[in-house]
Amino acid sequence: MVEKWLRSVAVAVCVAAPALAMAQERGTAEEAVALVKKGAAFYKANGKEKLAAEINSRSPMFQEKDLYLFMSPAAGGALIAHGANAKMVGKTLGDMRDVDGVNFVQKFRDVANSKEGKGWVDYKWPNAKTGQLEQKSTYIERVDDVYLAAGIYKGK
User: Which UniProt keyword terms apply here (predicted)?
Assistant: First the structure.
């Protein structure tokens, strides 16, 4: 009887362990905000070009768990830096939409150019770590003429 119970517990642990590991690797909303604020402080101390170089080099300073920082002009235009996909840098993404038709890049600019200059945008995006399409919520904050952003994946 005890042996059967131990086997059941062992199976449960084996099944649950990957899910728990994945949950621990996901960034939180608080961590996303902190990453953006860290980027803003670096920007103010070192300038836009140095921040872009750090982000584009995938510096661990601007990546945590599944979070990464990206930077774009608040007025629109080519993406300046992206911590997960260097191929996006230099591309104008203004009309980019998710699978549900949400023009999330325009929403990023709307938030950046709002009175508060910061906030959250929800959309669907492939998880940079898993490649799976997931719900994502991205925190945006304007700094001078750009916005910095980092998003959390919420699952499917």
Answer: Cell membrane, Kinase, Membrane, Signal, Transferase, Transmembrane, Transmembrane helix
